[in-house]
Amino acid sequence: MIITRPRDWERIEDNLASIGARSVFIMGCGQCATVAHTGGETEVAEVAARLEALGLEVTGWTVGEVTCHLGGTKLESRKHGGDIEAADAVLVLACGAGVQTVADSVTKPVFPGLESLFLGNVIRNGIFEERCLMCGECVLDKTAGICPVTTCPKGLLNGPCGGMWEGMCEVLTDRECTHVRIRRRLTEQHRAGKGTLAPKDFSKTLKPGGVNIRGHGDSR
Amino acid sequence: MSRLRDMLSAGEFVVTGEVAPPKGADVTAMRAAVELLAPHCHALNVTDNQGASLHLASLAASRIVLDMGIEPIFQQTCRDRNRLALQSDLLAAWSLGLENVLVVTGDDPRAGDHPNAKGVFDLDSTQLAEIARGMNEGHDMMDRPLAGATDFFIGAAMFPEAEPWDVQLARAEQKIEAGVRFFQTQAIFDMTRLKRAVEALRPHGAKVIAGVLVLKSPRVIDFINERLAGLMVPDAIADRIRSADDPAEEAIVLATEQVREIRTIADGVHIMPLGLDAAVGRILGNSS
Ligand code: SF4
Ligand code: SF4
Hints:
The complex is a heterodimer.
Chain A: E1 2-6, H1 9-18, E2 23-29, H2 32-35, H3 41-53, E3 57-64, H4 70-79, H5 81-86, E4 89-92, H6 96-105, E5 110-112, E6 114-124, E7 127-130, H7 148-151, H8 178-188
Parallel strand pairs in A: 2-3, 2-4, 4-5
Antiparallel strand pairs in A: 1-6, 6-7
Chain B: H1 3-9, E1 14-19, H2 28-37, E2 43-46, H3 58-67, E3 71-77, H4 83-95, E4 100-104, H5 125-136, E5 153-158, H6 165-177, E6 182-187, H7 191-201, E7 207-213, H8 218-227, H9 235-242, H10 247-265, E8 268-272, H11 280-287
Parallel strand pairs in B: 1-2, 1-8, 2-3, 3-4, 4-5, 5-6, 6-7, 7-8
The complex binds iron/sulfur cluster (2 copies).
C-alpha cells in the first residue's frame, strides 16, 4: 500500500491562506490512507476540528472508497456537490494520486493534506517498511526474494559495499546489510552463484508510467 | 604501460600511497604531499570526492600527479556519476595517460558535506569494473565499438577483516570475474586475516596490496572507530597507541612492524599516513 504521513500543518495553513480560503471541504481515502491512519474517518474528523479551531468553516467531509479511482471519486464528488460548491477549497487526506484524482473531479482549488512516502509493506499495524521501488524489471528471482534496489540504501545490485561491518549496513547501522542477507538465503537454498547482476534498465521506469490492459497489455 | 602492472606481474613488492585532492582550486598542498610520498611509492591513489565531500576532481588531480613523474591510481566512485559520465571519464582518463583505475562504490552522501545530494549509484563497482574491461576490449557497455580502446589496469577495494568472510570472498571473486586484477585493502590489523585473503585470491591471478594506517594519535583512532564505515581499530592496538608516551612515534613503530609482516604475506602495501607523510620513508626503510 501507499504510505503517507500528515503534511506539516503550517504548510496546510499557508496553502489555504494563499487563496484566502474561509471554508473547506475535506476528503479522505478508505484504502491506504485509512490503513496508514492518515486519511480515515478519525483523521478527517481531527483535521476538521483543527480547521474549525482556526476559525475556518468546514462545509462537509467524506472518506471516498478508493480516492485514486477516477470514476468513484467523480461519483463521490457529485454526491457532495453542494458542500464542495459551498467551500473555497478542498483538502485531501490521501496520497498524491488521490489528490490529483480529486483535482480532476472538482472545479475548486485542491490541496494535499498528506505527504506521500513510499509503497510499503505493513509489518504490523502502524509499522510500514519500503520493500519495492517498482523498478519495472524485478530481480527478486536472483536475490532470494530480498530487493537490493530498495532495501540497500545505495540500491546496489551487487554488494556488499565497503562500509559493511560484521554483517551490518554502513548507512542504516542498526540493520543487517541487504547483500549479506541475500547471500545467506541463497546459500541456504543452495543457489548462491558468482555472477554479477547487470546494470539496471532505467528506460523501464520512464515516467509517467501507464498501462492499458484493454489494449495489448502494453506499458510505457 | 602501467608500471604498477609490470611490477606486480614481475612479482615485485609494490608500495602505494594516497593523496587527496584539495577542496578548492589550489593544489599547492597536494603537490607538497606528492613530493613527500613520491620518492617512497611506486604509485599514488588519487581519491574521488573522498568521504562523500566535495573535492577537486580525481581526473584532473591524477593528471597533475602523473605530470609530477609518479604513476597515479585514478579512483572512480559510483556515487556521483551515472553510466554515461563514468564511461566518458574513463575515456578521458585514458586519453590523459592514466592507466590505473580503482573502482569503488563510494560512501553514502549522507556521510559527507552535501548530505542532501542524490546518491547516483547507477552502477556498482563490479559493474563499473566490467565496463572498464569492456573498454579495454574496445567497446562501450552497450557493446558498441569505441574509436580507440583503453588498456586499464583495473583495481578494486577489498575488506579482509570485515565479516562474514564468505560474503567478502564471494564479492572479491565476483570482482575478479568482472576484470579486477589488483585489490587494495582496507587497513589491516590482523595479519592472519590478510593471509587468508591473499591465499584465497592469488590462485585467481589477482594481486593484493594491503592497507596500513598510521594511527598517529588517540584522536585518529576515535575518528576511525566512530566515523569511518567498515573499519574498527582492535582494542589491543588502540591501547598500545593510547598508552604510549609519544603516540605518533609508537604509531610509526607499529606501522613499521606491520609493513615488515606484510612484505612476507602480500604483493604490496598501501600506506595511509593520515598526515604523517614525512614518516613514510622511515616506515618503509626500517621495514625491509
Ligand atoms: S527488483 Fe525490487 S524494486 Fe524492482 S520490482 Fe522487484 S522488488 Fe520492486
Ligand atoms: S552495507 Fe550493504 S545494505 Fe548497506 S549500503 Fe552497503 S551494500 Fe547496501
